Amino acid sequence: METVILRGKPTAERVLQNVRAEVAAMERPPKLAAVCAGADPAGDFYVASQMKRARKLGVEYELLRLPEGARQDDLNAAVRAASADEGTDGVIILTPLPPPLDVKEAREHLAPDKDVEGITPAALGSLALGLDAPAAPTARAAWMLAREHMGELAGVEALVAGYSDTVGKPLSMLLLNDRATVTVARSRVRDLPALVGRAELVFACMGKARYIRGEWLRPGAVVIDVGTNEVKERDEEGNETVRWVGDVDFDSALGRAAAVTPVPGGVGTLTTALLFDNLVRLCRKRKGGQG
């Protein structure tokens, strides 16, 4: 079986073209504020990608980095201040945060009308009820790539391996709203290979490098790999190298899956585009238009 490689770039380009046109038509550029603390390789890579994209789109991007040793009260105050700023249209809290900072507590101080990542109770509640609201960009990216390849998802047996607030939970809601038959595998799942083997559509969002093996897959399954894991390897000369890989063992999935997303170049490529799409939607809604 020849496996189709589902790249995120074509879809991302269509989304960005629309965002660019909307930004150009606005009286002032929308502004995105990113609150962060500490340093993390994946987080810094994501920030750099966001800032570069913002410049190209004409979006103002403000990075609010808390000093080392910042307390929970400092984080909460930074989120509140960004939410209260009339010139700011969207706020994100970059994760992971250094302990003991708690992102869930910080989210309680985020204004729903500035929630560009769809992580507040109001946004998640709207999504669960099938109402129009910005969904978490990563979850939305994974869902969009599946729909682009498979079309109608009603009745499709889908497995979501992972249940984070920003991916697994909103993704399962998006699939349920599409009338898919959804199974969610959490950390204490008893027989993940069996669940993977039954699914027509597999979403891997566990945060475990190359965990899902190709031989587990149902022949002809569609695989959307959401994982972004840094792994260290050695080249032929014995030098240590760093690679980014997904939660699926990509090489073993080839020839068994009907389609699979690569890492990098798959879901992540579309995620950043959808972050700015959510920002434009929030900006438009705050100005009295439709979201």
Provide an overview of this structure:
The strands form three sheets. A six-stranded parallel beta sheet has the order 1-11-8-7-5-6, sandwiched between helices. The chain has a three-stranded parallel beta sheet with strand order 3-2-4, with helices on both faces. The model has no long low-confidence stretch (mean pLDDT 93). Helix 1 (9-24) packs parallel to helix 10, helix 6 crosses helix 7 and helix 6 (137-150) packs across helix 10. The protein has helices at residues 9-24, 41-57, 72-84, 103-107, 121-128, 137-150, 168-177, 192-198, 250-253, 267-286; strands at residues 4-5, 31-37, 60-66, 90-93, 157-161, 181-185, 201-204, 222-225, 229-234, 240-245, 259-260. The protein folds into two domains: 28-111, 3-Layer(aba) Sandwich (Rossmann fold); 135-269, 3-Layer(aba) Sandwich (Rossmann fold), CATH 3.40.50. The chain is globular and about 55 Å long. The chain has ten helices and eleven strands. The chain has 291 residues and is of the alpha/beta class. Helix 7 (168-177) links the parallel strand 5 (157-161) and strand 6 (181-185). 39% of the residues lie in helices and 18% in strands.
Biggest sheet, spatial arrangement of strands: 1-11-8-7-5-6
What is the CATH T-level topology of the largest domain?
Answer: Rossmann fold
Query: Strand count, sense and closure of the main sheet?
Result: 6 strands, parallel
Number of helices: 10
Global mean pLDDT: 93
Oligomer: single chain
